[in-house]
Automatic annotation (TrEMBL):
The keyword Transmembrane helix applies. It comes from the Bacteria. It comes from Falsibacillus albus. Keywords: Membrane, Transmembrane, Transmembrane helix. This is Resolvase HTH domain-containing protein. The chain crosses the membrane at residues 6-22.
Length: 117
């Protein structure tokens, strides 16, 4: 019994001494986390700074940027040949012009224009 007790105490002492020589992994993780958060805050600051500059430029010029959706043109040249064939095929199958317009995502005027050709 005493031998087991001395053996376990010796083993515990050896592990205790080894713990001083091994690297602490939590400190490495803490350091990496600190560096990561620092770079995040730096990038965040730079983005906010750029946004502020852009906002000031917009205010100075007085021309707010507006995003407009592209307008559809009823030009015959702008309608793709595949869509034209699809419209003609659907018309030959007996579908109504409104249904053709809905399926081909064209306006009724464009469908009528294709069918008039």
């Amino acid at each position: 019994m005493e031998i087991i007790l001395f053996g376990l105490s010796g083993f515990a002492f050896i592990l205790f001494i080894l713990s001083f020589f091994l690297k602490d992994r939590t400190k490495l993780i803490e350091k990496e986390l600190e560096e990561l958060s620092l770079t995040f805050f730096q990038e965040n600051y730079q983005i906010k700074k750029r946004m502020k500059i852009l906002e000031e430029e917009i205010m100075v010029t007085g021309n707010p940027i507006s995003f407009k959706s592209p307008e559809r043109s009823t030009n015959k040249r702008n309608i793709n040949e595949i869509i034209r064939n699809q419209v003609l095929h659907l018309y030959r199958q007996g579908l109504e012009r409104e249904q053709i317009a809905a399926q081909s995502s064209l306006s009724l005027a464009e469908v009528n224009e294709i069918l008039a050709e």
